[in-house]
Amino acid sequence: PSAKPVVIIVAALVPSLGIGNKGTMPWRLRREMKYFREVTSGNNDGSSNTNAVIMGRKTWESIPEKFRPLPGRRNMVLSRSYPDGDVQHTKNPHHHQATTTTATTTTLFNSVESAIAYCDQSVDINTIYIIGGAEIYNQAVNNQRVRQILLTEINSDQPVEMDTFLEFKLDNHEWIKQNRQRLREVVGHHVELPQEEILENGFRYNFTLWERK
Ligand code: NDP
């Protein structure tokens, strides 16, 4: 088993890097959700392998019950009170069509490192995505296994109510913002990448890629 890519994927308001409010997202952006689904579900190599999504317990709870576990991805939830590597089978009445166990299984871990180590050992897992929330992102950014950040940069002309923020800066000391061609390479051809800024619900946003120097 070899070390797999570990990628942070996050949508944040710029420049404050706010990402949440009262346990949910400060916005509802349909095309952003579609991008997230395409990036994290898709596989680049044409194999039947799946990707893993690692998230904190609070982000897990913020996903409406009928949408979790996220289908087609290995869901890994972090809590300090979970037994490491415990597997939970979640019956999701909305996943009638599920033919694999990936849609109904959630694996619980009590550290970011052990979730990554588990993924490294699983031959059927490709890319490991860190999908939030703030507490998990703020730790993961210091983990040297994380080499890439897929950041949706959101702009708003109106004030946005937020209480949860990324605590790191993306500047050119440690992270380099890559061009669209490199973003395309990283997300794969199955992902719809618009040419221009997207306008939705009063927000303007762009999909960007940052790589560790
Ligand atoms: P998190 O989702 O980061 O979950 C925090 C919990 O994760 C902790 O309470 C703890 O669970 C567990 N945890 C944290 N660190 C570790 C560790 N090292 N090992 C084991 N378990 C750990 O919560 P936040 O409140 O920080 O973020 C949630 C907010 O972020 C929401 O508002 C959500 O909507 C938003 N969000 C935004 C995203 C975006 O892209 N804009 C994406 C995802 C979330 P326990 O207490 O059980 O021990």
UniProtKB/TrEMBL annotation:
Enzyme class: oxidoreductase
SUPFAM superfamilies: Dihydrofolate reductase-like
Protein known as: Dihydrofolate reductase
GO cellular component assignments: mitochondrion
PROSITE patterns (UniProt xref): DHFR_1, DHFR_2
A biological process term (GO) from this entry: tetrahydrofolate biosynthetic process
Family named by the database record: Belongs to the dihydrofolate reductase family.
Pfam families with a match to the protein in the record: DHFR_1
Residues annotated as domain DHFR: 5-212
EC number: 1.5.1.3
Keywords assigned by UniProt, alphabetized: NADP, One-carbon metabolism, Oxidoreductase
GO MF terms held by the record: dihydrofolate reductase activity; NADP binding
Pathway where it operates: Cofactor biosynthesis; tetrahydrofolate biosynthesis; 5,6,7,8-tetrahydrofolate from 7,8-dihydrofolate: step 1/1
InterPro entries: DHFR, DHFR-like_dom_sf, DHFR_CS, DHFR_dom
